Amino acid sequence: MSNLDRFIETFLNGAVLAKYTPAILQGVWVTIELSILIVIAGTLLGTSLACIRAYRLRPVSFLIVIYADIFRALPPLVLILLAYFGLPNVGVTLSSSTVLFVILGLTLGAFAEEIVWAGITSTDKGQWEAARSTGLGFTQTLIFVVLPQAVRMVIPPLTNRAIAITKMTALGTVIGVPDILNQATTAQSFSGNASPLTLAAVAYVVLFLPFVILSRWLESRFAWKKG
Amino acid sequence: MSKTTTRPAVRKPEAENGGAAPGAGRPTLEVIGLRKSFGTLEVLKNVSLAVEKSEMVFVLGRSGSGKSTMLRCCNRLEEPDAGEILLEGQPITGSGVNLDKVRRRIGMVFQGFNLYPHLDARRNITLALRKVLKQSRDEADTRAAAALTRVGLADKAGNYPSQLSGGQQQRVAIARAIALEPAVMLFDEPTSALDPELVGDVLGVMRELKEDGMTMLVVSHEMAFAREAADRVVFMADGHIVEQGPPEDLFTNPQHESTRAFLSRYSYGP
Ligand SMILES: Nc1ncnc2c1ncn2[C@@H]1O[C@H](COP(=O)(O)OP(=O)(O)OP(=O)(O)O)[C@@H](O)[C@H]1O
Ligand SMILES: [Mg+2]
After folding, report:
1. Residue in A132, A135, A140 closest to B101 by CB
2. pLDDT band at B17 (very low <50, low <70, confident <90, very high)
3. Distance in Å, CA B43 to ligand 1 centroid
4. Across the interface, which of B115, B118, B132 has its CB nearest the CB of A136?
5. Is the dihedral of CA B12, B18, B19, B22 positive or negative?
6. CB B103 to CB A148 under 8 A?
7. pTM score, two decimals?
8. One-character DSSP codes across B174-205
């Protein structure tokens, strides 16, 4: 057997691929669903917290900063394991998918809060003054004038961060979430062949490449032109 | 106060309110004993000024003399340390005042335009009409169109600020303010960020506003325009109003030392 044959046999085995493709496709759906939920929940949470922080109520802002710093500092895997194996001991049993969603949602929320907050603080002070001078209130100014500009400004870093964190759904494998990677490793151990992992890699590329390209496009698009 | 050279044309702010209609007989905007410090820097030291209805008052003074601070105190973008400000006879300083309600009656135009970059010209104007005056979309659009027509930009309603020249942006900013039908307009160096050839358009709009009876308090160094269009010129130095009067008098016969120094530096006049 030539080296090439051995390579194909190991990584691109037709029979194995045919057998396990349906399982991996199931995993694709799980990954997509979780990713969408995490992105929606994380950006909503982060944006809301950044808005609340704009009111500059000291104790509230302090709590938000603590949350954001802790979740940005900790490796999500640690929190996932802690939640999945630790919480049942205090009577809270969550499914593996729920744990993954909550932890990654909170992690994205922490990063999104910091990113949107940076956008809010870098919005020109004159925007606040102009809006308030027409009689718009603080909340109205925040929602209709400042936030739209802030979000536009931070869409590229936010997209990058969302991609980085949704990719971490693969961490769910360690607690048994039936995502792409989990299906692939299961198939790999049953078949004794690495081809399902190859398929998983292809699935991730197909899934995430469009978003990577989208973020590149957004970056060039929103590199604006101020004033 | 001792530094102020009072001229006959200036009304005393203490003039009694007749008591009948609120604000009747009172100046449209009245600043009484205004003080403001930033930390240890005393920027306004007892400033009093009255702007009568339909009057255009120009404020001159060296950089740092407190012109912007005084203007910004008038709609409380800056919080005065002491003193009183009355709009149409009603106090707008103090705690019991609904600031948002007051501010919609006081238009402000900024040096840097401060248009909302994510909204087109029409929606820059309609935002406050919709959210503050609670107008319907149709009402607001109609009023925005009228305001844009007044500033000569009826055809630019759909343009975003980045698609407008500086002069056009400033005129949209003026339209945004006048659409709320304010009792008084404050201008803080409305033309100093503009290329010289665009200044005339903005001044032209201000002249028309004046002809339509708008009450205006203007910080600007457009001396020729002040001389031609202002009813009164106020000169500020070192946190005080040191001198005020009709432009002709003030420019040709300044009484105060710092006014003279300022005018000669601007090398105004023949
Ligand atoms: N928010 C602030 N914090 C601290 N100091 C301030 C603040 N705003 C203004 N000042 C100071 O107050 C003084 C008066 O400022 P102001 O902007 O009123 O002057 P101005 O007459 O408008 O000057 P210019 O012609 O340069 O616009 C300046 O010394 C300025 O540095
Ligand atoms: Mg100024």
Report:
1. A135
2. very low
3. 7
4. B132
5. negative
6. no
7. 0.89
8. HHHHHTT--SEEEEESTTTTS-HHHHHHHHHH
CB contact under 8 A, B118 and A129: no
**Closest chain A CA to residue B176:** A134
What tokens appear for A143 in the block?
């929602």
pLDDT at B268 over 60: no
Give the one of B113, B128, B161 whose C-beta lies nearest to A134's C-beta.
B128
Q: What is the per-residue pLDDT for B8? A: 44
* Domains defined for chain B, CATH in brackets: 51-264 (3.40.50.300)
The answer to whether residue A210 neighbours chain B at the CB level (below 8 Å) is no
- A136 and B100 within 8 Å at the Cβ level: the answer is yes
Residue B4 has pLDDT above 70, yes or no: no
Per-residue pLDDT band at B22 (split at 50, 70, 90)? low
pLDDT in tens, B124-161: 999 999 999 999 999 999 999 999 999 999 999 999 99
Averaged pLDDT of chain B: 90
Measured on CA atoms in the order B206, B207, B213, B219, is the torsion positive or negative?
A: positive
In this predicted model, what pLDDT tens digit does every residue of A181-218 receive, in sequence order? Answer: 999 999 999 999 999 999 999 999 999 999 899 888 88
CB contact under 8 A, A136 and B180: no
Class of domain A13-222: mainly alpha
Using alpha carbons, list the distances in angstroms from residue B29 to B8, B45, B71, B231: 19, 19, 11, 15
| Residue of the CA atom closest to atom 16 of ligand 1 | B66
Task: Quote the minimal CA–CA distance from A114 to chain B in Å.
Answer: 22
According to the model, what pLDDT value does residue A172 have? Answer: 95
The ipTM is: 0.88
Residues contacting residue A182 through CB under 8 Å, at least 6 positions apart: A27, A172, A173, A176
Contact A144 B132 (CB under 8 A): no
pLDDT for A77 equals: 97
Whose CA is closest to atom 17 on ligand 1?
A: B68
Domain map (residue ranges) of chain A: 13-222
pLDDT > 70? residue A118? yes
For atom 2 of ligand 1, the residue with the nearest CA is B38
Which are the contacts of A1, defined by CB distance < 8 A and separation ≥ 6?
A: A9
Name the 3-class secondary structure at B49: strand
Partner B contacted by A55 (CB < 8 A): no
DSSP B244: E
Partner residues linked to A171 by β-bridges: none
| Torsion sign, CA atoms A56, B119, B98, B33 | positive
Region A25-41: what's the mean pLDDT? Answer: 96
